[in-house]
């Protein structure tokens, strides 16, 4: 089965600091897509950043960037100059299959709770 | 287009009652997904549709759960004979094709079974 692992259940940093959330995944596919989603408390899930596995260049979106290591199957999210509004659950996901008989869909990690302290 | 819309936002029901939730996806999206999420956990896949066809359903899903997407537009998720363990947030998402550009989520329906 294809899986996603987020090894940090919770992290806490001071406002304006840089924080990195880790994510590893397991797949035998050669081409796939990776995502980080953010879910603030009691609010809806929103897409933060997306990476195409065939692209070597790491994706960036303003203060958010990724470190994609395809060989290591690692996809970490770096948040620079963290803000109070970044406090949320962060989920890593990739476009894979739950098992050999399944269709392609997003496979999700368990999430990392990020707290930005003032 | 205002994104993915879910109704109701909250539902409180007595154990044993049936409930139905509605999801209106982004009109251009041909795929629609239902997830269940409990506090502090990631989304748990329930089922998904491509247009009006239900392509996959979680093998862990009880037969008390059923979903439809008539005419490939909005979708409904029905839970029959609700149990306290069904209390959760039910999320709907939609995407283009295989979701290569990501999914767009609705705000969810929070179900409380008392």
Word description of this protein:
- The complex is a heterodimer of chains A (about 120) and B (about 110).
- In chain A, a hairpin with a 2-residue loop joins β7 and β8.
- With about 120 residues, chain A is mainly β.
- Chain A is globular.
- Chain A is built from no helices and 12 strands.
- Chain B has about 110 residues and is mostly beta strands.
- Helix content of chain B is about 0%, strand content about 50%.
- In chain B, the strands form 2 sheets. In chain B, strands 2, 4, 5, 6, 9, 10 and 11 form a 7-stranded mixed β-sheet that branches.
- Chain B starts with a strand and ends with a strand.
- In chain B, about 35% of the residues are buried.
- The model of chain B has no long low-confidence stretch (mean pLDDT about 90).
- At the A-B interface, β5, β6, β10 and β11 of A face β10 of B.
Helix/strand order of chain A? EEEEEEEEEEEE
Order of SSEs of chain B, N→C?
EEEEEEEEEEE
Number of H- or I-type helical stretches of chain B: 0
Poorly predicted runs of chain A are none
- Share in helix of chain B: under 10%
> How large, in whole angstroms, is the Cα Rg of chain B?
13 Å
The helix content of chain A is under 10%
Number of helices of chain A: 0
Strand % of chain B is: over 45%
**Shape label of chain A:** globular
Q: In what range is the share of β-strand residues of chain A?
A: over 45%
- Give the N-to-C terminal Cα separation of chain A: 41 Å
Mean pLDDT of chain B: 92
What's the count of strands of chain A?
12
- The structure class of chain A reads mainly beta
Oligomeric assembly: heterodimer
Largest inter-chain interface? A-B, 23 and 22 residues
Main pleated sheet of chain A: 6 strands, mixed
């Amino acid at each position: 089965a294809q899986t996603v692992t987020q090894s940090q259940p919770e992290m806490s940093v001071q406002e304006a600091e840089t924080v990195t959330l880790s994510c590893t995944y397991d797949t035998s596919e050669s081409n796939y897509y990776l995502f980080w989603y953010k879910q603030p408390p009691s609010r809806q899930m929103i897409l933060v950043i997306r990476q195409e596995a065939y692209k070597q260049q790491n994706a960036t979106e303003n203060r958010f960037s990724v470190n994609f290591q395809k060989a290591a199957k690692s996809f970490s999210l770096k948040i620079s100059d963290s803000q109070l509004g970044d406090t949320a659950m962060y989920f890593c996901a990739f476009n894979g299959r739950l098992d050999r008989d399944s269709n392609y869909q997003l496979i999700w990690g368990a999430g990392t709770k990020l707290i930005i302290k003032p | 287009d205002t994104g993915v819309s879910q109704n109701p936002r909250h539902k409180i029901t007595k154990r044993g009652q049936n409930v139905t939730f509605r999801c209106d996806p982004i009109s251009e999206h041909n795929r629609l997904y239902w997830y269940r999420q409990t506090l502090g956990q990631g989304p748990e896949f329930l089922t998904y549709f491509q247009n009006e066809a239900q392509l996959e359903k979680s093998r862990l899903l009880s037969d008390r759960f059923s979903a439809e997407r008539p005419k490939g537009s909005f979708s409904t998720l029905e839970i029959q004979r609700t149990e306290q363990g069904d209390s959760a947030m039910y999320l709907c998402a939609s995407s283009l094709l295989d979701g290569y550009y990501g999914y767009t989520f609705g705000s969810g329906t929070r179900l409380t079974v008392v």
